[in-house]
Amino acid sequence: MNSHRLCCALWTFYAIILTRCLHGQTEECRTGMYPPNGPTFKGDVPWYTVDLNEPPVKRWNGVVKDKKNELVAVMQAIKELANSLVHSGRLVDLVDNVLPLMLDTLPYPFNEEIRGIAISSGAPVGEVILFNIFYEVFTVCTSVVAEDTSGNLYHGRNLDFGLLMGWNHKNHSWIITDKLKPLAVNVDFKRNNATVFKSTSFAGYVGMLTGIRPKQFTLTMNERFNFDGGYVGIFEWILGKRDGMWMGFLTRTVLENVTSYEDAKTQLALTKLLAPAYFILGGNQTGQGCVITRTRINALDVWEIDLKLGRWYVLETNYDHWEEPFILDDRRTPAMKCMNKTTQAYISFKTMYDVLSTKPVLNKLTTYTTLMEVSSGKLESFLRDCPDPCSPW
Questions:
Q1: What are the Cα distances from residue 218, in Å, to 31, 131, 379?
Q2: Which of 6, 110, 148, 275 is packed most tightly, with the most Cβ within 10 A?
Q3: Domain 27-54+138-159+183-384: assigned CATH number
Q4: Locate the Choloylglycine hydrolase/NAAA C-terminal domain: which residues (predicted)?
């Protein structure tokens, strides 16, 4: 990166931090936001069906057909961002010439699904792989599992993505975040014409970040910031060390194949990963809700709902729950303040959406909000916006 680009990047980062400080960290807990309405609501996330009986190379054809232009636009924006950061073009050369060699090293059926997405979209295989890699290292989110006084379990999440990935000074928004929103899709995964699980995802991404196995469990994944992070695992994979599993592939595998909360918890806690993560898991019985804090090797902590201790919900952003969050990124405190103000007796889709609509829980990185109820198998997702004044993250 030349000195001019580095200077511009540093000034942009400084301006964003200054904006965050000037706008303040919190606002009063929102109410009356559900059903979604007003300037923070950008529309419903559309539904698609993926047939797991189809050959993997063909499964995503219908989704990609509808979202081809948006997917190509995002991948082009990512390449342009890479070019601006490393002006020599070495990152783009890596994407075009090295990443395609990874395809056959990825586990089945994900390698074949990525191959099919590349064929359907006309995009180079390396760019589709890069698009899938990004979610291993750049996902900044808020997830919560809560139990009401009747024993019903609710699971909500804001999917925040695009941190430091190009700031649009005119629109006061993150470039990649804006381009991702049109790619958000709800997917009903079926086998033998019956729903196996449902998920909110992005067209072109074959892993899962948000999903429900109706009447059995709900699952979301948040990034865990750590020096031994996703970059390390991905480079090890490229160099031939492949004993860890991709986070998004693990969550997809669990949603597709596991049939109980306890078995899901075991797999999420014990499977070796490419990157550290938080898995937020909800079950179908009282007390079944937890945050699994992961290293790449094993579970560091499993933090569970415990009604005897008065803990009727667990809430995770991107910092270990026993540590203070980063002062410039404290979404946890306002989210917990609003959950406590709601109280267990009044938790519902409506009130959980209010919590997830309160700034800075809702911020410039938020692409969608998803609400799930395991007993009914209900999943609702909504595209979001955060008009100024709003925290950059």
A1: 25, 25, 10
A2: 275
A3: 3.60.60.10
A4: 141-378
- Dihedral, CA of residue 237, residue 183, residue 222 and residue 36, to nearest 10: 180
**What pLDDT does 11 receive?**
46
CA 63 to chain centre: 19
E strands, 69-178, are 139-147, 153-161, 167-168, 173-174
Closest CA to 279 of 230, 223, 228: 223
CB 348 within 8 A of CB 154: yes
Coil/strand/helix, residue 57: helix
Tokens of 139: 């996902």
Backbone angles phi, psi at 201, to 5 degrees: -150, -165
CA–CA dist 336, 132 (Å, integer) = 31
Mean pLDDT by 10 residues, the chain (393 residues): 46 49 68 96 98 98 98 88 67 81 95 98 93 78 97 98 83 92 98 98 97 98 77 76 91 98 98 94 98 95 98 97 94 98 98 98 97 98 96 89
Integer distance in angstroms from the first to the last C-alpha of the chain?
Answer: 25
Helix (H) or strand (E) holding 5: helix 3-23
Q: Does 141 participate in catalysis according to the annotation?
A: yes
Answer yes or no: are the C-beta atoms of 73 and 179 closer than 8 Å: yes
Sequence spans of domains, the chain: 27-54+138-159+183-384
At 350, is the secondary structure helix, strand, or coil?
Answer: helix
Q: How far apart are CA 184 and CA 204, in angstroms?
A: 10
